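Review form for a predicted model. The reviewer records the input and the model, then writes brief findings.
Reviewer: anonymous (R2)
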Amino acid sequence: MTERLLVLVRHGQSEWNLKNLFTGWRDPDLTPLGVEEALKAGQRLKADGYQFDIAFTSALSRAQKTLDLALGELGQTGLPILRDQALNERDYGDLAGLNKDDARVKWGEEQVHVWRRSYDVPPPGGESLKDTVARALPYYVTEILPKVLQGKRVLVAAHGNSLRALIMVLERHSPESIMKRELATGVPVIYRLKADSTVESVVDLAG
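Model under review:
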């Protein structure tokens, strides 16, 4: 029987996550906790017997490093890896690099909440989640999904919002419900797909 396995992992905690800064396409490194989270992701997958045929990640180092550390724990450091900015985090535009509390002082709590939690309202100079879906989903459809349907075991290490773009389709979320879908850093979400690309089962190791 064909195994259609897709595992998504959000990168471990970054230095800017720790500092409460909007990150987007900026490229901070993982914190020591982020490194630990990435290693634990690999350890969890190894403990459950998972191995992979190919991996995908973004053009940003925090996702790439998370993937490398997880693969190291799996003993798969030579695995083929495809990197593409289509899987980058949502671009926060003028908010990038700002402390989230400082942004609320500058623009107001309500406006910052709209930028962060609405589906289709982008921050100044940046992307909405809708924009991120428009970027990430075609890449999933043309590059990632065909590998899964061929029976390749696929691991994707990326970002909260680029992964939400994929999860929106996989879990059939509405624009409203996808904004409430939380993704813990460094915790694998395991999908098995049917031949028609819909989800047969999902296990979120965050519980």
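Findings: The domain at 5-204 is CATH 3.40.50.1240 (Rossmann fold).
Further findings: The chain is about 40% helix and 15% strand.
Recommendation: see findings above.
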